[in-house]
Specification:
507 residues, alpha/beta, six-stranded parallel beta sheet, 22 helices, 15% strand
């Protein structure tokens, strides 16, 4: 009997219920044909822990591997890993994902996480399994992108590996996933189409924003698949499953203009709408003609980190120099003229010299957001509260440490409701934000989502949209944001969806 099989687990996430789990597919691709493995998707299981346990009860499974992202995924990843380790103590547990890489110390100190793949695991994961199977523990130090405790209990971080040519990597094992969960389950209705595919086409990001969790993992590195390679997969899913929309969940899809324009030319006659993430100062270098080509090729909306319109705060975020408040204003107008919806995220509540300065900046950002909506009413606005990430060495990170902020010291603390909201960047436990400041931001957000409900919630239209606009109009125009109970009531009745929390998908 084979007793070294591998279970690869994707914990449940509210924003990714209907997304193909590319993270675990990539892990599977790395060992496909080399080892026996199964997928368990927490988003599609009624009782995922029971499913996981049933595999381990056969005695055939040795490795429990989980992708672990901040926020909702922790609610399954942490207790499930702990319970599997307690029930099957000889199990070897391996974590990957942003949370594991950024919070490696608390993860390894838990006693139930054995190894962490620190970034891409295309080569790391199969080498780790091979070394463990051969009991070559002295070779672990030679495996790049790995974090573990040695025999002395000291945490070891191995050398980071250069990002690989994405076109040389093995094809994701879609058919293998389909044997556990029909791929049709992952193609859901969104505001863009009836069957929307979630897809990753690149790794990393070439920038070093001091508030971003990607920075410590990729260190300003980026590699993308070629346009032809992406389009080959698009054709497969269109012909096999009838997709009519794509969400590109790259950290920065638009890094290479040449690649984007080549892809736009390839897909322009397929009648497929698409969404991706990018930077304003990058896409602003595209000409109007190039932006129109993208729009004609199906580019419907682009998620962009505006963060703030204050040039000094942009510098504090390590995003200044190339992006400015004036550029944001000019860019949203350009997007209006070419017919692409800019989905702008703003990060409010960064630390300041005094509480008064922090509040002053919050009010300044609110007025800037209103200015953006005046320039381009179709611009989508996403509001986050600043949540620190461990970008050690940055000026911003030092500021948050100096005012007494600290991360949880145990994994169990991370699944407290307050810390889950922290990871969603909706309710951070930051000492410089007062209840008044948080209420101001949240109340404005409610009013904004009343006067300008998101286009991604396609159920809010017709009389619903008109009524929301009517009841929130006075508040929005005159800055009266306190106690917006009437708007909250309508949002609750109609189950208003915020894409940053619940994704684009309709139930």
């Amino acid at each position: 009997m084979n007793t070294n099989k591998i279970l690869i687990f994707n914990p449940r996430s509210a924003t990714a219920k209907h997304r193909i789990p590319n993270s675990i597919l990539q892990v599977g691709a790395a060992i496909h044909g080399l080892h026996d493995y199964v997928f368990v998707d927490g988003n599609l299981e009624d009782d995922p822990l029971q499913t996981i346990s049933s595999y381990f009860e056969t005695g055939e499974y040795k490795y429990f591997c989980s992708t672990v992202m901040p926020g909702p995924q922790l609610k399954q990843a942490i207790p499930f890993t702990k319970q599997i380790k307690e029930k099957f103590p000889h199990t070897i547990t391996i974590w990957g994902g942003y949370f594991a890489s950024n919070q490696y110390k608390v993860s390894l100190d838990s006693g139930y996480v054995d190894y962490i793949v620190n970034g891409p695991g295309d080569q790391t994961f199969p080498k780790l399994i091979n070394a463990l199977e051969k009991q070559q523990y002295d070779q672990l130090i030679l495996i790049r992108n790995l974090i573990f405790k040695n025999e002395k209990g000291t945490i070891v971080q191995t050398t980071k590996e250069a990002l690989l040519d994405q076109d040389t990597l093995p094809r994701l094992p879609y058919e293998h996933l389909n044997s556990f969960y029909p791929l049709d389950n992952y193609l859901a209705k969104t505001f863009m189409g009836k069957k929307t595919l979630a897809y990753h086409s690149s790794m990393g990001c070439p920038f070093t924003c001091s508030f971003c969790a990607v920075v410590p993992i990729y260190n300003a590195r980026w590699k993308g698949r070629s346009a032809a390679s992406i389009y080959k997969d698009v054709v497969f899913f269109k012909n096999s499953y009838g997709i009519d929309a794509i969400e590109f969940h790259d950290n920065n899809f638009f890094t290479s203009k040449k690649r984007v324009l080549e892809f736009a030319n390839l897909i322009k006659n397929d009648n497929i709408k698409w969404w991706g993430e990018g930077r304003i100062d990058t896409i602003n270098k595209y000409s109007d003609e190039e932006l129109r080509l993208m729009q004609q090729a199906g580019c419907t909306m682009i998620f962009l980190g505006a963060e703030t319109g204050n040039d000094e705060v942009l510098k504090q975020m390590n995003k200044g120099g190339t992006q400015t408040g004036k550029m944001i204003e000019e860019f949203v107008l350009r997007m209006k003229n070419v017919g692409i919806i800019p989905e702008l995220s703003f990060v409010l509540g960064l630390p300041g010299k005094t509480a008064a300065k922090v509040y002053e900046q919050i009010l300044w950002d609110i007025n800037f957001i209103k200015k953006i909506k005046k320039i381009n009413p179709n611009a989508e606005i996403i509001i986050y509260l600043y949540s620190p990430v461990p970008t050690e060495g940055s000026e911003l990170y030092q500021q948050i440490i100096d005012v007494g902020f600290s991360f949880p010291q145990t994994l169990e603390e991370w699944i407290a409701p307050s810390w889950e909201n922290f990871d969603l960047r909706k309710n951070p436990l930051t000492p410089w934000l007062t209840p008044k400041m948080i209420d101001t931001i949240k109340n404005f957000e409610t009013v904004l989502n009343g006067y300008y409900p998101t286009a991604s919630d396609f159920r809010i239209k017709g009389y619903k949209k008109k009524l929301l606009k009517l009841v929130s109009g006075y508040r929005f125009k005159y800055g009266f944001y306190q106690f917006p109970y009437e708007i909250k009531a309508l949002h609750k009745i109609w189950k208003y969806r915020q894409p940053e929390i619940e994704g684009f998908y309709s139930e």
